[in-house]
UniProtKB/TrEMBL annotation:
Domain (Glycosyltransferase 2-like) ranges: 487-664
Record's protein name: Glycosyltransferase 2-like domain-containing protein
Gene3D superfamilies named in the record: Spore Coat Polysaccharide Biosynthesis Protein SpsA, Chain A
Pfam families membership: Glycos_transf_2 (PF00535)
Amino acid sequence: MNANHTSRDKPWYPHHRSPQQFVPLQQLKAASRPGEWQSLGAEPLFALEGQLPLPGWNMVEIACERDVTSVVSSLTFESARRSLTVELPLRVGKITKRLVYVPWGVKRVTFAPMNATGTFSLEHFRFVWLTPMFAYNRLLQRLSNMHEHYRDLSLKEIELSLKQQARKQSRKWQTIALEDYESTFISFSTRRHYQQWIRQVERRRAPSDHEVAMRHHVHSFDCSILLVCPIGEATPDALQALQNSLKGSLASVAEQSLSPRQAVLLLPSPAFHGWQAWLEEWQREMPVLRVVESHATSVAALRIEALSYCKHSWIWFLRPGDRLAANALFHMASIAADNPQAQMLIADEDSLDEEGVRHSPQFKPEWNADLLLSMPYMGRAVCYQHRFFPRLSADMCGDNANNPDWLDYVQTLDVTRRDHFSSQQLAHVPHIAYHGAPGAATTPSSYVGAVEQHLEACGQVAQVAPGLLPGTQRIRWPMPTPEPLVSLLVPTRDGVDILRPCVDAILDRTDYSHFELLILDNQSSCKETLAYLDEVAARDTRVKVLSWNAPFNYSSINNYGADHARGSVIGLINNDVEPIDGQWLTEMVEQVSRPDIGCVGAKLYYPNDTIQHGGVILGLGGLAGHAHRFFQRDEDGYMGRLKVAQNLSAVTAACLLLRKEVFDAVNGLNEEDLAVAYNDVDLCIKVRETGYRNLWTPFAELYHHESISRGADDTPEKRARWLSEYAYMRKTWGELLDSDPAYNPNLTLVHEDFSLR
């Protein structure tokens, strides 16, 4: 493979070196299109020939387009004395850059383009030799932006911290800095690297026996574990299978680092009488175990009966075959002690395969009202206050009385509609506390009926339909009468080739017709642009052109537009977006018209049909980043979150709706401190802190060409402005930026792919 095309039309410098040949060594073959390759396995490998990197500090620059997300590339430098491998989680559509210290005497360099099967093409590949001073500056800058231990520190403060660590450890500070730098590139995929994460991260974080013993207040955690065995055929094979599944469940209770006050096991009569010796052995092993014979005829009835034997403050239903993690009760107790108002504890969970190997971790967000309506994201790892637990009779459950997944969901929905329920009554436990048995999923194809009953009980009117994934729902909220006027604000300056497709698409591809389109012209001078503005305003009475005759300030321009808007709903719209179907604005207006909803964001795609915006996660990259960026259009996302409406802390103003009364209540966008960047994140946080829920919906889809009109921050002035805006956001919202309730502390703040931290 000839690599010369990756750097054509660029000036050549002695310290810029690009390989001339990529020689396939294994698991690679040329694809049908020129320049494309197919990876045939998890370990494809090229040998690089030609201009190998110079020894010392180098910046590796790689752009690799591929049809697979959440994969990692790696480079290996081989010399006579040593071998060095560095990983690069490549970003689609962007040049990935990372520092590497190339040792002396490198004779061979190999490149693994991805660690999965798929198709890819290399668009850019080079090594740039750097002076040590420049390299250290870039290294420290990344630590400041990406490493949680150095957040909000200046570069000098980071260097001082590193030197203090070096003195204590008798090591070079540069060595420690490089290790911390390299840690920001580690990407643990939840699919491919979960076992590695368990070994290297989870086990390191596990409490020691001493920590468990010394946290005295957790020992007051008054909890009962309830195991109810559904009634089935009492054949010898069925009873043996039930007994086998109970072994692991009971063992997981017996092995808790913090013992429960009580464990109650309800068994059907054949098992209760036929297993006496086996049960007595378990009771000797676990004195807290109480075994009860039950004649209940459904799982719902079994749960009600189990509650009658429990006198303790907290209860947790454990399904036969499922297992508690060794420190499950300790973590539950710790969070309960820190959150005395909590009535529910929701922990993270995973699943077991037939060999007992853990997989598919579900690292959940905190309280997320709209995600809960979309799917039962709380799962099985839920511990309730006994007095708070809803009593669901078999008659109330109908055909689902024997479906524990359905029961769990309905119980959670019941709790959330209690009088005076608040998010403080729910506490998230950010630890894997529950392991689901293989093949135990009983997920209905739809929970539509459960959500319909819930909304009716809440006095809310909405249409509930099956969602984009099995077991998910789409809620269609009623459109207000009369329909609100929506004022769409589109800032622009020249660039008619960008503006025309945007405006024409909005006018032609929007079924919701009750809107005005305010084009906010920021000193356009292009004759063609000015002619188009005149033409489109004359052609469609919904279009009005307003002039903003001042230097570019995104916040000021949009605040000016909002001041002139007639609508009760404001829409912040970039001039480089294009609606995909006519329902986009209808969906967003239905959502934003709900009185408890603040900002509403859409699902945005790059022109190549990869995800540009799946909502904003606070803390990514040090401040905020787009969830699931560069995922393929048809991918479900982590825990299916690309296919369901949900609450997020922020959404991008490339396409954002909010009621004008809410916009005015938070004083709009910050003109003084955030002229260009992060003003939408700031707006969303202000709205959230006022008490509204921000929402992202996958049912409003648009293309977004992302900041084409403004250009990149590639000048000293733009860089200085960006640093100032970044510093303002860190100073103003620092604590909130580091703990997004719509995310999970076990997930990365470096990458946008929901990989593990």
